[in-house]
Specification:
This protein is mainly alpha-helical. It folds into 2 domains: 16-248, no CATH class; 252-451 and 487-612, no CATH class. The protein has helices spanning 16-54, 62-77, 99-130, 143-166, 170-187, 198-211, 216-226, 236-247, 254-268, 271-282, 288-301, 307-317, 319-324, 329-340, 350-359, 363-388, 400-425, 431-448, 453-486, 489-500, 504-521, 524-541, 546-559, 568-577, 581-587, 589-612. The longest helix has 39 residues, at 16-54.
Length: 615
């Protein structure tokens, strides 16, 4: 062949490099879509607030439009959350398996994700075909809202497929897909006689998903579908409808706004003012830097509402400095994780928002209770830090002038907590409106601090992705909660509680033990959604104030963020610091004990108030 004749270029095979490139492009597009949807959501709620309180009226359909945008945000961000820190994968069991066992577990975990994706896609298509009518306020066909989530399920399937191809795990993907398609095809056709109610079967299958390290939301949804052969009364379209309904509450729109506020505080450097103020106040005490970490967490809690955000911030900011001062790296990380528990207790708290949505409790009253509980927990942690502190070398106490300067620098950040708590507690604005104002306030602080466009984009992208992961969890827990109600599991729980006794002491003892066990294996959001509606009627029947009980429930489950095997906060800090989670679980024991003492104090207070209350 003459050398002048060039061979025709062959198209590159669809290999790992091509899959990785396509995956990056898809993630970029989805990230940009999350940013746009979060901006639109913030704009709609903000304009509604201005029109309502500034001009005495709103614009028609704003609440419904905001809910639809939130569903779209969950759909766009859900594929990005499959392998994020908020995917809630439990790998403590799979890491102990041999290599071949880890491979089998990974394929089963992917099968759970694929089944859940198929349920969203096919269930969304079916309900869209059957559903008629239009939205009363927007005038749009109702099927669009369900189609959005179906599209999110389809994008999750594509994202997972590209990721496994990029990781050169194509054969495993084929096996997982074959298992998922086969299971999905036959599950609706089979019927098994079972002595267990369908909800408990669902729970067992979901637990199997957790054991093989499937993401918790996908384990929930796949298990709900696999419960059909065991007598579940919820067909596939009803599951999708339940998921959409679960995430379509206006109160839940506050979650992405609080996440955005926390992300902007960290990105803009405003959170650093908390650090300087805390150091000026307690930096000279025994374990000064560790006490500064605690006080910063208390202050950051009044702005963020997200323990995950605080854990990531503390692991980056404080853990290296604590290690330099002589703390073992695992202990330094444990202090960061333990103090991060406060963010979902001290207002504003995303956990209280989820509880209020699940039980119809007053958000304002829960926030007040969160202040008291947060103070008790902070004192307990301060004592534990004092007793376990390393000899850092005591710094000179800050002068009065230095403290005033630090306080003045932190005033803009303190303003955020005032907006949220005062606005909600005194009924000036709704919880969602207060969260939107908080996000706008922190955005203004960032712009005033000349935060760059790239940093702003990343803050919105991170908040949107995290909000989608939480929203998907809330939605996929809804079918489980429905079956629990149908199977009257609340009656079973009430009978179990009655075995302890019907008094407030017995009920609180039973509830705390049950919640501690649940916190070992469940994420706090899922546990609140499942156990809040089950336990609240029992507590009220025993004469316990529902707000007191709600606060105890959240505190108890937040402690679960530090306990194996799930321990979300431990895994977040472990991921940032690159330290093994097992070492952190051991190092956190003194602080875990302090928090359990705080839980006992709060429970004793609830019992005392119940016994002293007039009857």
């Amino acid at each position: 062949m003459p050398q002048s004749e060039a061979l025709p270029e062959r198209a590159p095979a669809f290999g790992p490099a091509v899959a990785a490139r396509l995956l990056r492009r898809l993630e970029t597009v989805l990230g940009a879509l999350c940013v746009l949807l979060l901006v639109a959501l913030l704009g709609v709620v903000s304009v509604s607030v201005v029109l309502r309180y500034g001009l005495g009226g709103g614009f028609l359909g704003s609440d419904e439009l905001a809910v639809w945008l939130n569903v779209a945000l969950v759909a766009a961000g859900a594929p990005l959350a499959v392998n994020s820190a908020l995917a809630m994968r439990l790998d403590v069991f799979t890491r102990r398996l041999p290599v071949w066992g880890q491979g089998v577990a990974a394929m089963l975990a992917d099968a759970f994700v694929l089944v859940a994706g198929l349920v969203l896609v096919l269930g969304g298509v079916e309900i869209g075909a059957r559903l008629g009518g239009v939205s009363p306020m927007l005038g749009l066909p109702e099927w669009i809202r369900f189609a959005l989530l179906g599209a999110g399920g389809g994008l999750t399937l594509v994202t997972l497929g590209l990721q496994r191809l990029a990781e050169r795990r194509g054969p495993g993907l084929v096996v997982s897909l074959a298992v998922a398609v086969l299971v999905h095809a036959v599950a609706a056709e089979l019927q098994f006689a079972s002595a267990l109610p369908p909800s408990l079967v669902l729970g067992l299958i979901a637990f199997l998903g957790l054991v093989v390290a499937a993401p918790l939301p996908h384990a929930f949804l796949a298990a709900a579908y696999l419960a059909i052969p065991f007598g579940s009364s919820m067909p596939e379209p009803a599951m999708v409808a339940s998921v959409v309904s679960g995430m379509s509450k206006y109160l839940l729109l506050a979650i992405p706004f609080f996440l955005l506020a926390g992300s902007l505080l960290t990105t803009s450097g405003v959170a650093g003012r908390f650090v300087r103020f805390a150091a000026a106040m307690v930096g000279h005490r025994r374990g000064g830097l560790a006490q500064t970490t605690l006080l910063t967490s208390v202050l950051f809690s009044g702005a963020s509402g997200s323990s995950v955000a605080n854990a990531a911030f503390g692991a980056t900011t404080f853990q290296p400095e604590l290690a330099k001062r002589g703390y073992p790296p695992a202990q330094a990380s444990a202090i960061v994780a333990a103090t991060s528990v406060l963010d979902n207790v001290i207002p504003p708290s995303i956990a209280f928002l989820i509880l209020a949505a699940a039980t119809n409790l007053s958000v304002g009253k829960l926030l007040v209770g969160g202040f008291v509980a947060g103070a008790v927990m902070a004192v307990a942690l301060a004592v534990a830090i004092h007793l376990t502190a390393r000899a850092e070398g005591l710094a000179a106490p800050a002068t009065a002038r230095e403290r005033w300067r630090a306080a003045a620098g932190a005033i803009p950040a303190f303003g955020l907590g005032v907006i949220v708590v005062v606005g909600i507690r005194f009924g000036i604005v709704t919880t969602t409106e207060a969260a939107a104002l908080a996000a706008l306030y922190t955005l203004g602080l960032g712009l005033f601090g000349r935060l760059g466009a790239a940093s702003l984009y990343e803050a919105f992208r991170q908040a949107g992705t995290e909000a989608a992961a939480i929203g998907l969890l809330i939605g996929t827990a809804a079918p489980f909660a429905f079956l629990l109600a149908v199977d009257d599991i609340s009656g079973l729980v009430a009978n179990l509680a009655a075995a302890f006794g019907n008094g407030p002491l017995a009920v609180l003892l039973f509830a705390n033990l049950l919640l501690i066990v649940a916190g070992l294996v469940l994420d706090i959001g899922a546990a609140i959604l499942l156990f809040g509606p089950l336990l609240m009627p029992i507590a009220v029947a025993a004469g316990i104030d529902p707000i007191h009980f709600g606060v105890i429930l959240v505190v108890n489950l937040m402690i679960g963020g530090l306990t194996p095997p799930v321990g979300m906060l431990i895994y977040v800090v472990s991921g940032v610091t690159r330290l093994p989670a097992t070492a952190l679980f051991r190092a956190v024991l003194p602080y875990l004990a302090a928090l359990l003492v705080a839980l006992a104090v709060l429970s004793a207070g609830a019992i005392a108030s119940t016994l002293l209350a007039p009857h």
